[in-house]
């Protein structure tokens, strides 16, 4: 039986950033993730906005962690080799009522310490973002709003955590938790882990995990959101992030350019069942209407993907994060109710959790040999022609195109397969390399990706799954001959 | 007397052909076809529909690795025999090299047509 | 980085590219043909069914046979064929930047023929709601799995879209012993060729449900378990209360093809929003002088034979351009069209000898005739007939019409029953 000091349950951006932060200390750490890959839950169904801290209600934990977390991203991006862009944002208003809301938001932002917020009107709006709906009259401009790719960040955290000795258990849903003399015994499908402390980062299932550990102390409901992604050639490019006037429990339908250059529209906010991540027609219609409120016209024929995800809402917690030691079970810590701005807050949450653990008297001794950088994988499509040529001459696998829409080479896929945690599904490869993320959505490259993966994993192509457990792509060989 | 509406599949013109049948079900009048081939097609279609079959067989490469070789029937043959032909094709392995037109099964199911390779391999 | 000089660079080694390379060489040009896959033939290699070649070879061939004939012809020429080579960029001055296992190279061409083909529309584009499980794939990908990879991608299929690939896959799956529950088509008419409706569906007793679409994907344990299908009204909107759950493990999408013009756009080629292909003149030359386009990258064709014919024309014009031969100096005639004609290729005519105009109608029209006008006066009237969207139509404009055209011509299809014409 494996012995750990810390067992983190949940490999989303919270679990991964906390694992990385804790790996700075002399601790044995395990992360258990139910899905086949990290960042597979709420983390992946997210636009990746790094809010400057202008939205949360002042005085909340959210407000505190958001304004700290967003400031940590530029340095982390350098160290861990993920993309971070500062593109700014505007909350767009159309009338005097909206203006009143914008004034409230400005006040809130200032209280939260969000820098350089500015209430603007008229022509300035269109100077800053020419695509903005011409009916816009007022806007709250935040120059420091940033962008990341949320799974790229979570993967970077996880890889750096592994480099510092953290063990990841993927496809490992926790089925039972037992209190033992010196901690907990956590049952996974493939065996049991012993840990002195548990950190519950289980997203929409954090209440279920808490109950497994005997801590029936909060309930989570899922706030479902639809999102859609546009073709890179959809007529508009590099837009500043545009928000509508926010609704009581969500920022409304936002339109933004992702770090990879797609326009993304999201999310809706409707309470649904926890595991319902299906997309809904009403949701998609709302997104299109929402986008057409923010810009002049979205070319709906250029949508390449719709998807959905759930944010965890702790009931009766005023939409705030729920990060605290369990009220009922010693040694159990909850990082729950993580909804927007979860990505922006993630690095600050990790630091906060470390403080919380220290505050509870858990001995934490810093390592001397902590590796605080991670080398980013090669992104062939962004290299200069000379660099591409040089790379191919060193390794011909970079001269073999797999995904033509996103210009992803076999070399990049093989490199991804040799990283740890190792991606073992087609979606996991997609999230790391962008193979299949373009306009043909894998129509041309899925079979190539599958055969490269099967070769690297030494398995049959029929064993390669799309993403979730059971998501078999190929059932069998078609004919055997004689 | 009855009539039957057919789509001629001889060429992409896809003529709508009307066939009048007598009590025995034999065609007596054929109309709507734009060429004589359409008439022949309609007669055949009423009595015994014929189709070209296309499928694949396992191809053992010179490197020992298996792939698929596309094959076809050299001509149309009764549709009623296609299912049985498919079953035969499922259990055949052809060895490379193969040239387009090489016979894979001679006189399949005594129909007088061959199953042939559709390309070089 | 290596650099090479060619008169004509052909991008894409499918039916269009192979025919273009052969034709350009015949016309005296030095030619490079660039293909990203390890084999020539493009999508023809997975189209193992017959129905090719009636126009170009006067006999019915399978896709691989049709391809093999061009591969053999190419083998007899000294065209430089670059396989497993991906074009990264084409510039306005006709530098073609390519990559393969050996590195990056640049082809400096005097003329370029775009022949990159098309891709399939996806679930994302048509925004089918529901679960994002395995088992939803385009018909073309399924065709690759079944005909090339020897994989069985499903047992029980629903096919959305009655385009030709969908119909052909319905037959292919049935022949291989898989169950096809039905083909569902949003429009009130089928989108594929009539012969395919007959040979691919009727022969196998597969039902075709018109004015019906898939409104939800229902997954279970990571894989499709069923789809919800719903009837649509005249505005193509789902009708409440008409939904039905169809159990299946795979949803195949055959919901249209889109020309792949990302490289063309990068070269500054102007695109036609209706075809998603380049705007071309009667030499099939794009808005960038010396860059020509043909085949499915220009507009989606119904038959490979028509692709071949078009490619030969583009290549002959490209070779002439490379040799520096003068273009016709006549003023351009703009080609316009009116509904129900969806588009025309070309959009501009320079010749006064003869010009071929290809077009498609947007919906089926019965008993209607082609009318060609110029500035209001009628230049040409066709005989009454029917037109359907699945067939690409050709109108050959004779010299007499072109001479009379006054800067523009407009193609219309007018109902004869309407009686509005004298």
Automatic annotation (TrEMBL), chain A:
InterPro entries: BFD-like_2Fe2S-bd_dom (IPR007419), BFD-like_2Fe2S-bd_dom_sf (IPR041854), FAD-dep_OxRdtase (IPR006076), FAD/NAD-bd_sf (IPR036188), G3P_Oxidase/Oxidoreductase (IPR052745). The keyword Oxidoreductase applies. It holds the Pfam family DAO. Residues 5-356 form the FAD dependent oxidoreductase domain. One of its GO terms (molecular function) is (S)-2-hydroxy-acid oxidase activity. Residues 401-454 form the BFD-like [2Fe-2S]-binding domain. Its EC number is 1.1.3.15. Keywords: Oxidoreductase. The keyword Oxidoreductase applies. This is L-2-hydroxyglutarate oxidase LhgO. It comes from Caproiciproducens galactitolivorans.
From TrEMBL, chain B:
It holds the Pfam family DUF1667. InterPro entries: CPE0013-like_sf (IPR036593), DUF1667 (IPR012460). This is 4Fe-4S Mo/W bis-MGD-type domain-containing protein. It comes from Caproiciproducens galactitolivorans.
From TrEMBL, chain C:
Keywords: Oxidoreductase. It holds the Pfam family Pyr_redox_2. InterPro entries: FAD/NAD-bd_sf, FAD/NAD-binding_dom, Metab_Enz_Cyan_OpOx_G3PDH. Residues 6-305 form the FAD/NAD(P)-binding domain. SUPFAM superfamilies: FAD/NAD(P)-binding domain. One of its GO terms (molecular function) is glutamate synthase (NADPH) activity. Its EC number is 1.4.1.13. The keyword Oxidoreductase applies. This is Glutamate synthase [NADPH] small chain. It comes from Caproiciproducens galactitolivorans. The lineage of its organism: Bacteria, Bacillati, Bacillota, Clostridia, Eubacteriales. The gene is gltD_2.
């Amino acid at each position: 039986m494996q012995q750990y000091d810390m067992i983190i349950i949940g490999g989303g951006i919270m679990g991964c950033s906390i694992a990385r932060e804790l790996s700075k200390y002399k601790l044995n750490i395990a992360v258990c993730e139910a899905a086949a890959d990290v960042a597979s839950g709420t983390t992946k169904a997210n636009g990746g906005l790094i809010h400057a801290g202008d939205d949360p209600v002042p005085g909340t934990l959210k407000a505190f962690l958001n304004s700290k977390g967003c400031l940590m991203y530029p340095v982390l991006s350098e160290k861990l080799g993920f993309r971070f862009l500062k593109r700014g944002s505007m909350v767009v208003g159309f009338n005097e009522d909206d203006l009143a809301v914008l004034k409230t938001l400005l006040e809130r932002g200032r209280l939260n310490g969000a820098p350089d917020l500015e209430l603007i009107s008229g022509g300035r709006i269109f100077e800053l973002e020419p695509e903005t709906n011409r009916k816009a009259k007022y806007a709250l401009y935040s120059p420091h709003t940033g962008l990341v790719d949320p799974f790229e960040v979570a993967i970077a955290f996880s890889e750096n955590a592994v480099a510092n000795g953290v063990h990841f258990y993927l496809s490992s849903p926790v089925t039972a938790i037992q209190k033992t003399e010196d901690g907990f015994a956590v049952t996974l499908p493939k065996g049991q882990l012993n840990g002195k402390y548990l950190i519950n980062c289980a997203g929409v299932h954090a209440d279920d995990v808490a109950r497994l550990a005997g801590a029936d102390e909060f309930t989570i409901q899922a706030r479902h959101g639809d999102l859609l992604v546009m073709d890179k050639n959809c007529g508009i490019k590099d837009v500043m992030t545009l928000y509508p006037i926010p609704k009581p429990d969500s920022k409304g339908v936002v339109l933004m350019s992702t770090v990879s250059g797609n326009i993304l529209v999201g999310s809706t906010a409707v309470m649904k069942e926890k595991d319902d991540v299906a997309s809904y027609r009403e949701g998609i219609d709302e997104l299109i209407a929402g986008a057409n409120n923010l810009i002049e016209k979205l070319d709906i024929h250029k949508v390449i993907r719709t998807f959905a995800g759930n944010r965890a809402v702790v009931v009766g917690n005023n939409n705030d994060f729920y990060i605290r030691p369990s009220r009922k079970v010693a040694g159990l810590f909850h990082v729950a109710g993580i909804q927007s701005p979860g990505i922006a807050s993630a690095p600050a949450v990790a630091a906060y959790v470390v403080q919380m653990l220290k505050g509870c008297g858990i001995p934490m001794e810093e390592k001397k040999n902590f590796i605080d950088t991670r080398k980013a994988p090669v992104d062939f499509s962004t290299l200069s022609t000379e660099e591409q040529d040089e790379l191919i001459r060193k390794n011909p696998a970079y001269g073999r195109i797999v995904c033509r829409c996103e210009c992803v080479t076999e070399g990049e896929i093989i490199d991804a397969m040799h990283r740890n945690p190792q991606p073992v599904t087609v979606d996991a490869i997609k999230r790391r390399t962008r193979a299949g993320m373009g306009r043909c959505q894998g129509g041309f490259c899925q079979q190539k990706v599958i055969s490269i993966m099967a070769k690297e994993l030494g398995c049959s192509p029929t064993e390669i799954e799309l993403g979730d457990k059971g998501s078999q792509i190929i059932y069998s060989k078609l004919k055997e001959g004689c | 007397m009855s009539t039957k509406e057919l789509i001629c599949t001889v060429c992409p013109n896809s003529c709508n052909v009307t066939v009048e049948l007598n009590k025995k079900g034999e065609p007596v009048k054929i109309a709507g076809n734009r060429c004589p081939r359409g008439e022949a097609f309609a007669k055949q279609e009423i009595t015994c529909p014929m189709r070209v079959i296309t499928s694949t067989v396992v191809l053992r490469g010179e490197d020992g690795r298996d792939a698929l070789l596309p094959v076809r029937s050299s001509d149309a043959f009764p549709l009623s025999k296609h299912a049985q032909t498919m079953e035969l094709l499922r259990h055949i392995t052809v060895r490379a090299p193969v040239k387009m037109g090489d016979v894979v099964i001679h006189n399949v199911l005594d129909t007088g047509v061959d199953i042939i390779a559709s390309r070089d391999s | 980085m290596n650099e090479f000089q060619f008169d004509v660079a052909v991008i894409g080694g499918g039916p269009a590219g192979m025919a273009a390379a052969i034709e350009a060489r015949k016309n005296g040009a030095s030619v490079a043909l660039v293909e990203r896959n390890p084999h020539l033939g493009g999508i023809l290699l997975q189209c193992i069914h017959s129905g090719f070649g009636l126009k170009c070879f006067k006999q019915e061939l399978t896709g691989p046979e049709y391809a093999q004939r061009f591969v053999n012809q190419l083998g007899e020429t000294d065209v430089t064929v670059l396989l497993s080579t991906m074009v990264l960029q084409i510039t306005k001055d006709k530098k073609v930047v390519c990559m393969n296992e050996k590195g990056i190279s640049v082809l400096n061409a005097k003329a370029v023929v775009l022949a990159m083909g098309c891709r399939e529309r996806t679930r994302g584009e048509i925004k089918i709601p529901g679960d994002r499980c395995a088992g939803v794939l385009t018909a073309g990908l399924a065709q690759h799995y079944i005909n090339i990879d020897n994989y069985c991608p499903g047992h029980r299929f629903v096919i959305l879209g009655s385009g030709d690939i969908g119909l052909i896959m319905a037959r292919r799956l049935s022949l291989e012993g898989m169950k096809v529950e039905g083909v569902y088509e949003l429009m009130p008419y089928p989108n594929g060729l009539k012969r395919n409706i007959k040979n691919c569906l009727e022969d196998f007793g597969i039902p075709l449900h018109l004015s019906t679409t898939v409104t939800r994907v229902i997954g279970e344990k990571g894989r499709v378990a069923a789809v919800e299908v719903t009837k649509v009204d005249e505005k193509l909107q789902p009708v409440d209360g008409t939904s039905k759950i169809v159990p299946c493990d795979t949803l195949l999408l055959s919901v249209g093809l889109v020309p792949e013009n990302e490289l063309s756009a990068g070269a500054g080629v102007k695109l036609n929003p209706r075809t998603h292909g380049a705007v071309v003149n009667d030499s099939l030359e794009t808005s960038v002088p010396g860059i020509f386009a043909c085949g499915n990258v220009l507009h989606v064709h119904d038959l490979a034979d028509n692709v071949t014919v078009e490619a030969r024309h583009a290549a002959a014009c490209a070779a002439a351009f490379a040799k520096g031969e003068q273009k016709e100096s006549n003023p351009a005639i703009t080609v316009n069209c009116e509904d129900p004609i969806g588009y025309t290729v070309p959009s501009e005519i320079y010749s006064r000898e003869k010009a071929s105009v290809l077009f498609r109608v947007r919906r089926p029209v019965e008993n209607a005739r082609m009318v060609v006008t110029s500035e209001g006066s009628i230049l040409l009237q066709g005989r009454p007939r029917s037109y359907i969207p699945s067939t690409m139509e050709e109108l050959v404009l004779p010299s007499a019409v072109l001479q009379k055209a006054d800067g523009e011509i407009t193609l219309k299809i007018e109902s004869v029953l309407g009686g509005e014409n004298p």
